[in-house]
Amino acid sequence: MVKYLFVCVNMKVLVFCNNKSAAQIVFELIRKRVFAGIVLPAENTELINDILDSGYIQEQQLFTLALENCTELIEIVKSVNPDVCFTLTFPLIFKKEILDIPSQGFYNFHFGKLPEYRSADPIFWQIRNREKTGGLCVHKMNSRIDAGPVLFQEEIPIHSTDTYGSLLHKSAVLSSIKVGEILKLIEAEDGKLITQNPKGSKYYPKPKLEDVNIDWKNMESAEIIATINAANPWNKGAITTISGEEIRILQATPVNYDKELPDQPGLVFYADEKQGVFVICKDQQLLRIDAIYTPLGFSFGGRILSYGLIKGKVFE
User: Fold this and answer.
1) 309/305 Cα distance (integer angstroms)
2) Which of 153, 179, 204 is the last residue of a domain?
3) Helices marked H in the chain — which ranges?
4) 93, 107 in Cβ contact below 8 A?
5) Residues 298, 85: Cα–Cα separation, whole Å
6) Three-class SS of residue 192?
7) Which residue positions in the chain have pLDDT lower than 70?
């Protein structure tokens, strides 16, 4: 006989999200019978359709919101009357009058360490900065960005091969595994919240164009790979140009080479259809370009030679 453990059966949770990564935690909330509804930005029609097509959520449990409409937001929260609200990658700063509506407040699932990585996109910056660990941090929200007291925090290893997509997946999986524990902690909130130390805090903005550009003359191989991984898949890779054409690199691998290389960062040192394309970096390291994206589509291995990545060309 299979027994199911349902925690916090009297708790109602309203979820705010803007990414498919929230799906796993929503399914767990449904399974635990605490799910009250989900709020999505009205402009994210793809996610809205995906949620409706999933069959797990009833139409009356899905709310769409014009982000600039504070009145509509208040009406949604009051109509659902949740005990607590969860936010995951939701692009809105909530005012105190909204945060105070649920009896147990709002909790943000932050996919990064706090207070070191206060950011709308901590996953990008943790990979871009070549951190060895990231984290899932659940904090009670206040009027300041990512500054509320911490309820739960757990480290997540970041490997050199991790991309934005893989770290986002790890964070979402951990969130779904730990959601039962987090709900119990919310019920026993008194004495469980830890105030963040402002001395260790740092805020990172949303990535800009220059943050996903490869500067072959000034970036060493590890920094180039980190930039590529941090931009995969959301930006379709890190941006570079060759012969005046923009190319986005989705994957690259360092290759050992025991002979002296020309001091020419960005030079396509070797290229053929079987071995692929190899580029010299500032630190005399060869990178093999494994996958690229152009307006014509994705290409892998030796096929990327057809986009001008041939021996003797130089990335600008």
Assistant:
1) 5
2) 204
3) 23-31, 45-54, 70-80, 96-99, 122-128, 164-187, 221-230
4) no
5) 39
6) coil
7) 1-9, 189-191
